[in-house]
Specification:
mainly alpha, 8 helices, globular, about 250 residues
């Protein structure tokens, strides 16, 4: 057999843009999750903060007397705890990236800026869901101690929490990236974050309250509120996707 007759090995398949973007997304997300699993710093601080907030709410409401039903405002208190806790975690995630030089390395790597956004937002969703899973049992114990205090369907609460977590992570990742290079990171993030969370907070509280209280028309109230949550998530994710390239490069 001559050299000319030697079969040529097949050329390696070229990665398409979609497959390459998916691999980059998984690599960034895996990096964030592995770093958090090693330190457990962000989830631990967020979880402890949320749990202490629930306890403080319960102690304050215990002085209101027997005529006051804590279920009426329990959903609002739960989401207030999640919003303030999420600000703590979102700020810490980007600050660690900047302090350790990871953010600069990502900017120098051949990765599209929207891929960085979706990977960071997905990691924040995972961490928020973990904190919510840790907080919900404490919330049920403090505010729904008896079985007759629960009026809706059990599956509604996790669905409302997941929808809210997506919106919080999407908007929060964009705003945390904007505020990470400022002097007053916590203050700037809070000033920008809380007003933008207002529509999502209204819809998520309404959905969670319908799941907790039940009553006439609670299913319709839940789904109408979840439609607002889904619309908010879609609009804000598209806006953050479009703006992230300009924000992270600033």
């Amino acid at each position: 057999m001559t050299v000319a007759d030697t079969p040529t090995p097949p050329a390696p398949a070229r990665q398409t843009g979609a497959s390459l973007s998916w691999r980059q997304f998984k690599a960034i997300l895996r990096k964030d999750i592995v770093m958090e699993l090693r330190t457990k710093e962000m989830v631990t601080s967020m979880g402890i903060y949320a749990l202490l907030t629930m306890v403080i709410y319960q102690v304050a409401l215990s002085q209101a007397g027997t005529a006051f039903d804590p279920r009426d405002i329990a959903a609002g208190l739960l989401w207030l705890a999640f919003v303030f806790t999420s600000m703590l975690g979102l700020n810490r995630s980007l600050v660690h990236e900047k302090d350790q030089g990871c953010l600069e390395a990502l900017l120098l790597s051949p990765v599209d800026r929207p891929i960085i956004f979706f990977a960071k937002a997905a990691g924040n969703v995972v961490f928020l869901l973990i904190v919510q899973a840790l907080t919900i049992p404490v919330f049920a114990f403090l505010f729904l101690q008896r079985a007759d205090q629960y009026g809706g369907d059990l599956w509604m609460i996790p669905l409302a929490l997941a929808g809210g977590a997506i919106g919080i992570a999407g908007v929060g990742t964009l705003l945390a990236t904007m505020s990470v290079n400022t002097k007053g990171k916590d203050f700037v993030l809070a000033v920008l974050f809380v007003p933008l969370m207002y529509p999502l907070l209204l819809a998520a509280v309404s959905a969670t309250s319908a799941a907790v209280l039940g009553g006439d028309g609670y299913v319709q109230q839940f789904w109408s509120s979840m439609a607002l949550v889904a619309a908010y998530d879609a609009i804000m994710l598209v806006a953050a996707f479009a703006l992230y390239e300009f924000v992270i490069g600033a």
